[in-house]
């Protein structure tokens, strides 16, 4: 016996909805795993500090500093045009296991 067009449409819609939720869960998991392999170092901004300067302090040699700048901006919910101020505390994302070395770089 053939399924009615209405029933086929309902089944198709349910498949699309299920696919949407599976894809949404996969993307959420991918985002969480990015932050799971990071440690964070709290840094007090000093006079003359810039996000670029802070990023270059912890960036891996030969890496693109812009990606570290972006990570700092995202971790601290800053807008890209927002200035940082002396005394402000920023969370600096660093590779897992390198937080102690990064802290030493920031102790003035």
UniProtKB/TrEMBL annotation:
Source superkingdom: Bacteria
InterPro entries in the record: LysM, LysM_dom_sf
Sequence ranges assigned to domain LysM in this UniProt record: 41-92
UniProt-listed CDD domains: LysM
Pfam families membership: LysM
Protein name: LysM domain protein
Lineage: Bacteria, Bacillati, Bacillota, Negativicutes, Veillonellales
